[in-house]
Design goal:
With 146 residues, this protein is α+β, with helices and mostly antiparallel strands. It is 35% helix and 16% strand.
């Protein structure tokens, strides 16, 4: 660069072209952030319990049944419920130290009612003779009882 200035001052032609204008300024714009397509959020799937609770309705469900492989008649149930179910049981007269005891009383009543219903149906289908009373069919839809 110094050589070019000396040649210009001495009026000697320069070997290199002389730049008399300012170089154009380059405008640098900041990069725009890359717009990424947002993935739509998967829809929230509500459980039946959540739906019932939002509606202030009682909810109870059997989650799991465990059976003893050695004794198929023995086992346990795992239940799920909401606070509105507990409130309904309390209004119906069930009592307990905690929610589990209240639900356990209710479930025992349900099981007891199933057994009683089954027993009553069995008794109705298989009548036992009354002791000391004999019934004899004498035909034409008539019976003799002695």
């Amino acid at each position: 660069m110094l050589d070019i200035i000396k040649k210009l001052l001495n009026n000697q032609p320069a070997d290199e072209p002389v730049i008399t204008e300012k170089p154009a300024q380059i405008k640098v714009e900041p990069k725009k952030p890359v717009e990424r397509k947002k993935k739509p959020k998967p829809p929230v799937i509500k459980s039946q319990k959540d739906i019932a609770t939002e509606k202030h309705e009682p909810y109870v469900n059997i989650i799991k049944v465990d059976l003893d492989p050695e004794n198929i008649g023995a086992g346990s149930f795992e239940l799920d419920w909401n606070e509105y179910f507990i409130a309904k049981l309390i209004r119906s007269g069930y009592k307990g130290a905690d929610d589990s005891q209240i639900v356990d009383q209710w479930f025992q009543d349900v099981c007891r009612n199933v057994v009683l219903e089954t027993f009553e149906q069995y008794e109705a289908n298989n009548p036992r003779p009354v002791s000391g009373v004999q019934r004899k069919d004498i035909g034409s839809g008539r019976s003799e009882i002695s």
